[in-house]
């Protein structure tokens, strides 16, 4: 059965040279390139070595039903993608059934790593999620122990360690770290209970 099209939106966020603009059905070449970029894929958990266009479309269109998906532009050039998605993992939902939990996923081309673009994008997603979207908590899921750059980018944006989870046997990394930032509206952090 054909999947529904991408659920798009009209939110654009900007800070300095970094702009997050809506992902659209015109962006599949970019997305396919990023998903199949070995330097990005090295940090992904996927079992796929190469995605087809149809696979990427099906996955991202599915995610977009429950997410704001963005292309990250730096000085007007598309350099990566990110999204703010409703939490979809039971290990979080079980512990916080009454809480509006979201997650951020992000990837940027290697040539643009280490310039603060990731931190800026994460900060904008957090502000959007808390101030305009009613989120109570925003997570980064399964940040692999061999990806300190990602962990640092989230921590610079205010995230803290929530839990450490063992990766399945045979996975590239041994553990993954779940990180979280709580909305100021949310009184007390359940993570500290
Ligand atoms: C993770 C990612 C989005 C971060 O974006 P970025 O623009 O490179 O991040 P920033 O430049 O904002 O911040 C990176 C920080 O990590 C630091 N860092 C880099 N390598 C590091 C290392 N080995 N150990 C510790 N810190 C490291 C940088 O110095 C920088 O911190 P600083 O500003 O205090 O110096 C990007 O690197 C990426 O797309 N990686 C591949 C895909 C990926 O890992 N996605 C996340 C999956 S959880």
In short:
This protein is of the alpha+beta class and 193 residues long. The protein has helices at 28-35, 38-41, 53-64, 90-93, 117-132, 148-156, and strands at 13-15, 18-22, 67-74, 77-86, 101-108, 137-144, 160-166, 175-182.
What does this protein structure show overall?
The chain has 193 residues and is an alpha+beta fold. It has a single domain, classed as Aminopeptidase (3-Layer(aba) Sandwich). It is 27% helix and 30% strand. The chain has an 8-stranded mixed sheet, with helices on both faces. A hairpin with a 2-residue loop joins strand 3 (67-74) and strand 4 (77-86). Helix 5 (117-132) crosses helix 6. It is globular. The termini are far apart. The structure holds coenzyme A. Coenzyme A binds at residues 40, 43, 80, 106-108, 113-119, 140, 143, 147-150, 152-153, 156. Residues 40, 43, 80, 106-108, 113-119, 140, 143, 147-150, 152-153, 156 line the site of coenzyme A.
Present the secondary structure layout.
Blueprint lengths: L12 E3 L2 E5 L5 H8 L2 H4 L11 H12 L2 E8 L2 E10 L3 H4 L7 E8 L8 H16 L4 E8 L3 H9 L3 E7 L8 E8 L11
Parallel strand pairs: 5-6
Antiparallel strand pairs: 1-2, 2-3, 3-4, 4-5, 6-8, 7-8
The protein binds coenzyme A.
Secondary-structure-based class equals alpha+beta
Radius of gyration: 16 Å
The CATH architecture classification is 3-Layer(aba) Sandwich
Number of helices: 6
Ranges where pLDDT stays below 50 over 5 or more residues in a row are none
Small molecules in complex? coenzyme A
Q: β content, as a range?
A: 25-35%
Strand order of the largest sheet: 1-2-3-4-5-6-8-7
The number of strands is 8
CATH topology, what is it called? Aminopeptidase
Largest pleated sheet = 8 strands, mixed
Percent helix range:
25-40%
Q: Which superfamily, in CATH terms, is the homologous superfamily?
A: Gcn5-related N-acetyltransferase (GNAT)
What's the number of structural domains?
A: 1
Reading off the top of the CATH hierarchy, the class is best stated as: Alpha Beta
Distance between the termini: 45 Å
Instruction: Give the mean pLDDT.
Output: 93
């Amino acid at each position: 059965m054909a999947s529904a099209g991408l659920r798009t939106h009209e939110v654009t966020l900007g800070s300095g040279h970094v702009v997050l603009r809506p992902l659209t059905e015109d962006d599949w070449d970019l997305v396919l390139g990023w998903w199949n970029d070995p330097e990005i894929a090295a940090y992904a958990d996927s079992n796929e070595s190469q995605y087809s266009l149809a696979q990427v479309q099906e996955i991202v269109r599915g995610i977009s039903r429950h997410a704001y998906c963005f292309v990250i532009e730096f000085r007007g050039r598309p350099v990566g993608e990110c999204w703010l998605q409703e939490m979809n993992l039971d290990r979080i939902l079980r512990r916080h059934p009454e809480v509006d939990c979201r997650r951020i996923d992000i990837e940027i081309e290697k040539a643009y790593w280490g310039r603060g673009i990731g931190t800026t994008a994460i900060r904008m997603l957090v502000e959007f999620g808390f101030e305009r979207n009613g989120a109570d908590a925003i997570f980064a899921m399964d940040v692999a122990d061999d990806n300190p750059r990602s962990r640092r980018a989230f921590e610079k944006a205010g995230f803290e360690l929530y839990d450490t989870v063992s990766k399945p046997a045979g996975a590239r990394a041994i553990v993954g770290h779940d990180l979280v930032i709580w909305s100021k509206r949310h009184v007390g952090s359940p993570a500290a209970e």
